[in-house]
Specification:
Blueprint: E1 12-15, H1 21-31, E2 35-40, E3 54-55, E4 58-59, H2 60-65, E5 69-73, H3 79-88, E6 94-97, H4 103-107, H5 111-115, E7 122-127, H6 142-149, E8 156-157, E9 161-162, H7 169-193, E10 197-202, H8 203-209, H9 212-222, E11 239-242, E12 248-251, H10 256-266, H11 281-292, H12 297-304, E13 311-313, H13 317-321, H14 324-328, E14 332-336, E15 342-346, E16 359-361, H15 370-376, H16 381-389
Parallel strand pairs: 1-2, 1-6, 2-5, 6-7, 7-10, 14-16
Antiparallel strand pairs: 3-4, 8-9, 11-12, 12-13, 14-15
Helix pairs in contact: 1-7, 6-8, 7-8
Length: about 400
């Protein structure tokens, strides 16, 4: 279990989500001390559970993203299960749901229905396109949200078109992080006013909001942002460059002092003057690439070590995990697996002082805490056994 109580100790959340956006959001909340109870189907397991590789019997990704949470497996199509949810609302006053609009309403578990049970309920609905608008009922994934938000149109290379990121930008930076912000804002409002509310969170809305710089420029009349033609998407020397051994350097020195040191290292301090001419950017990048390609990554790193120039190596994940930076920031932790043993996981990036938690509980099997939860709600052993026999719980 976690070694310390986090700043969200006391918040209690019912999490009806699966896959990535919702579970990642509730992982962040649980890492900060909130009590998260996953409501899972006994017959339709979260697809994340089947994602390889496995650590013991569990998916490594599932064990990480669903750490520090409890699990109650309920057949939500049974009225007895709905009554269990209603009882849980006496304790759990925040709901996180991740379905297309209308699904929770059919089950009698939408905000309108549950607010009748708990007036100050905070209810966050994560969906691809929101609960209003022309695409509200449409299915989608991260790639679709990036496409419709405009972000994909200028993320990639001119000769290859849009390219996928190594992580799910819309799902995590859009859906998960905005869900946490929305929930915590709603908690603060409830503390001030006593009112809960419904957060209608569209992942596409959130992805669209990530067009922070290029979108602002376009709305101001600068024209459409294009592939490799903006300051930060490859349209300047701010880019990745291959070394002689097929590794890469990330060159980010935009400011004059950083650019000057970088060009001095390359042996061409005069190239700094070319930064002021947009027409020279393509040829400048070719010249930089030609010089960097003459030496290995290790050679460049030795020269760069004493230099503060915003130039860094592109590390593999394993290299990053073993780096002095990640170790010093305590970004790796251990999680206890349900069947025994431990798994190394990516730790929470949120640090609230000297006592950053370094031990967690990995995600558990569906229904691990069903008996425990139902007993706390006042159900007898006989009732719980009957629920199991009828397939209401697992």
């Amino acid at each position: 279990m976690r070694e310390i109580q986090g700043p969200l100790n006391g918040l209690k959340i019912l999490d009806f989500s699966t896959l990535l956006p919702g579970p990642y959001a509730s992982m962040l909340l649980a890492d900060m001390g909130a009590t998260v109870l996953r409501i899972e189907s006994p017959t339709r397991p979260d697809l994340l559970r089947s994602l390889p590789p496995k650590v013991g019997a569990a998916s490594a990704a599932h064990a990480t993203i669903n750490r520090n949470k409890k699990s109650l497996a309920l057949n939500l199509k049974d009225p007895c299960a709905i009554e269990i949810i209603r009882r849980l609302l006496s304790e759990y006053d925040i709901v996180l749901a991740q379905f297309r609009p209308g699904v929770m309403a059919k089950l009698g578990l939408d905000y309108a229905a549950l607010q009748q049970v708990r007036e100050d309920l905070i209810y966050c609905s994560i969906s691809g396109y929101g609960h209003s608008g022309p695409l509200r009922a449409r299915a989608g994934h991260d790639i679709n949200y990036l496409a419709l938000s405009g972000l994909a149109s200028y993320s990639g290379r001119r000769d290859g078109g849009p390219s996928l990121s190594g992580t799910q930008v819309a799902d995590i930076a859009g859906g998960a992080h905005h869900a946490v912000m929305g929930i915590l804002a709603a908690v603060y409002r409830r503390q001030c006013t006593g009112r809960g509310g419904h957060i209608d969170l569209s992942i596409t809305d959130c992805a669209f909001a990530l067009n922070a710089i290029c979108g602002a420029n376009a709305l101001a009349g600068a024209g459409e942002p294009k592939l490799e033609q903006e300051l930060l998407n490859g349209g300047s020397h701010y880019d990745y460059y291959a070394t002689a051994d097929a590794r890469h350097l990330a060159v980010g020195g935009l400011e004059p002092q950083f650019a000057g040191r970088f060009f001095q290292l390359l042996g061409h301090p005069d190239w700094q003057q070319r930064l002021l001419d947009p027409e020279q950017q393509p040829s400048l990048k070719r010249d930089i690439a030609a010089v960097i390609a003459t030496r290995s990554l290790d050679h460049w790193l030795r020269d760069l070590a004493p230099l503060d120039a915003c130039v860094e190596p592109v590390l593999t994940f394993s290299e990053a995990a073993q780096s002095d930076l990640i170790k010093a920031r305590r970004m790796l932790c251990q999680a206890s697996l349900p069947g025994g043993g431990e798994q190394t996981q990516i730790n929470t990036p949120l640090n609230f002082g000297p006592d950053k938690p370094m031990r967690h509980s990995a995600g558990v099997q569906p229904g691990t805490h069903s008996d425990e939860i139902l007993r706390t709600l006042g159900y007898s052993a006989e009732q719980i056994q009957q629920f199991q026999t009828q397939g209401i719980i697992a």
